[in-house]
Amino acid sequence: MLPFHALNAADLLITKLSTIALEAMLFKRPVVSILLDGGGRFRIYGDAVECADSVEALHEILSLMVGDARRRAAWVQNQLKNQGRFLKSYFDSTGESALLGAEALDKLLTKNRPEQQVEG
Predict the structure, then answer these.
(1) Quick one: average pLDDT of 93-100?
(2) pLDDT tens digits, residue range 42-69?
(3) Which own/partner contact pairs does 99-103 have at CB distance under 8 Å and 24+ positions apart?
(4) Are 16 and 33 in contact (CB under 8 A)?
(5) What distances in angstroms separate CA 44 from CA 39, 67, 114, one per listed residue?
(6) 31 bridge partner residues
(7) CA-wise closest residue to 65 among 106, 22, 25, 32
(8) Residues 6 or more apart in contact with residue 70 via CB below 8 angstroms
(9) Angle 87-92-95 (CA atoms, 0-180°, nearest 5)?
(10) Are the C-beta atoms of 32 and 12 separated by less than 8 Å?
């Protein structure tokens, strides 16, 4: 499967360190980075990515995802806000070109996601 299709269908991306985390941000998907080897040097996305440095921390994050819809929604909104700031600084000083492209892509994908069509 192409990453495009996987990210379009995903609610969350879990990775160690990959440029797919950046792609997930463009798709407005929260990202969790698993750094079980204490790889602090891999925290290249700042607070735009939630980092889990232990199995317990990962379990806590995943429990939040399935256990409390209100806390999950607040966490996702916070992650998206942090990602927006990161993308703005990453692509250019204004961030306009990257964010406009990401918003257009997100609108297209949201329109074409079956579950979004049913809800919306």
Answers:
(1) 58
(2) 677 888 888 888 889 889 888 888 888 8
(3) 101/26, 102/25, 102/26, 102/27, 102/28
(4) yes
(5) 11, 29, 34
(6) 13
(7) 32
(8) none
(9) 55
(10) yes
Q: Which residues of 101-110 are buried (b: 16+ CB within 10 A; e: fewer)?
A: ebeeeeeebe
CA distances from 116 to 18, 46, 106, 111 (A): 28, 30, 12, 7
Q: What is the pLDDT of residue 117?
A: 45
pLDDT for 42 equals: 64
What is the dihedral angle through the alpha carbons of 61, 65, 69, 74, rounded to the nearest 10 degrees?
Answer: 50
- The one-letter amino acid code at 119 reads E
Amino acid (1-letter code) at residue 100: L
Alpha-carbon gap, residue 95 to 84, rounded angstroms: 9
The pLDDT of residue 118 is above 50: no
Q: Tokens 């499967």 — which residue?
A: 1
